Amino acid sequence: MKIIALFIAGILFCSYSFSQTEIKLDDVAAHVGETVKVCGKVYGSKFLESAKNAPTFINVGAQYPNAKLTLVIWGTARTNFKNKPEDFYNNKNICITGKVELFKDKPQIVIEKEESITVN
Fold it and tell me: What is the pLDDT of residues 20-41, one digit of tens each?
């Protein structure tokens, strides 16, 4: 009986640990440090191939510099994507799961794998 109770407690703990809060795009800045799910339209993307770490920037919610959220895909993570992210997600409605960070007082989520972004 103890083993079953520990097993159930472990499952509940794991599901709580890996769950994320679904938030509105307008509220993303209030969730810095949290892992969230947020949805919005992509209004522009750019791959800076010759810049340090070759980042791809995806602007969600508005065009740069007014994006409500910026997704960052570092060059090393681009190999985890079947398609070029700057082309594939452009002008699409997407949902993102990841940890919200601030960069120069603006919210961003660093994306490591394709599974963190879904197209609606």
Answer: 789 999 999 999 999 999 999 9
